[in-house]
Specification:
The complex is a heterodimer. Chain A has two helices and four strands; from the N terminus they run E-H-E-H-E-E. In chain A, about 30% of the residues lie in helices and about 35% in strands. By secondary structure, chain A is α+β, with helices and mostly antiparallel strands. Chain B has a domain of about 110 residues: Hypothetical Protein Ychn, Chain: A (3-Layer(aba) Sandwich). The two termini of chain B are about 25 Å apart. The chains are: A alpha+beta, B alpha/beta.
Chain lengths: ~80, ~160
């Protein structure tokens, strides 16, 4: 996994909380910084793609590992 | 993305039906939408200081039940409270946000919450029954925002 500046563990949280928490965490980052989000909600995979598309932030990585979903979101 | 608007009319005051407006409102705000939720009739419950919403299976054959239960049994005193408690526990165990949390997120994201003045008067509500920071208005107020919205939803 690539480098990241901050981590957000949204494990156990269901829609729309992972997105809302990520939005909050991203607001505290500067442009170009990367947020690593961990989630267990399978719906988060499509939701983070949609979030990135609509907010202009870049979804650098999205993968599943050990039953959890990992996302790298670069703030734009 | 910026400049998009979402207008929602919230008309229901049960625990389950309070979710769609608050989930969609908070998420749209997170995506950069400007959001207004116009609360009318039972939707005014979303604006009460204390969110004490209940869920009922009565008149709702679509509600999944943990065990089959005759309708007359579901109507017994205390059943509604019990079902509400069970629903809240299930939501908590599944990581579903509470209504309080979602409403707080809406307020933080500057979602405009509007109480329908006509139904506030109809039900003899007082502004002290509601949380601070809400607006009051009528149908024309709704259309002022909805007319410029990209999405309008009736819940």
């Amino acid at each position: 996994m690539a480098d990241f500046d901050q981590e957000l563990d949204a494990s156990g949280l269901n829609c729309p909380l992972p997105i809302l928490r990520a939005k909050k965490a991203l607001a505290a980052l500067s442009e170009g910084q990367v947020l690593h989000i961990i989630a267990t909600d399978p719906g988060a995979v499509k939701d983070f793609e949609a979030f990135a598309k609509q907010t202009g932030n870049e979804l650098v990585e999205s993968r599943e590992e050990g039953g959890k979903f990992h996302f790298l979101m670069k703030k734009h | 993305m910026s400049g998009k608007k979402l207008a929602i009319i919230a008309t229901k005051g049960s625990l389950d039906w309070a979710y769609p407006p608050l989930i969609l409102g908070s998420t749209a705000a997170a995506l950069g939408y400007e959001v207004e939720i116009f609360c009318t009739f039972y939707g005014l419950q979303l604006l009460r200081k204390k969110l004490d919403l209940k869920v009922t299976s009565l008149g709702n054959p679509g509600m999944p039940m943990p065990m089959p239960m005759p309708v007359l049994l579901q109507a017994l005193p205390g059943m509604q409270s019990m079902m509400t408690l069970m629903m809240k526990q299930k939501m908590k165990s599944k990581g579903v946000a509470s209504l309080e949390e979602l409403r707080e997120l809406c307020i933080e994201a500057e979602v405009r919450l509007v109480a329908c003045q006509m139904t506030v008067d109809l039900f003899d509500f007082d502004s002290s029954d509601f949380i601070d920071g809400i607006e009051y208005g009528g149908a024309a107020t709704f259309f002022e925002f909805a007319g410029e919205s990209d999405i309008t939803l009736f819940v």
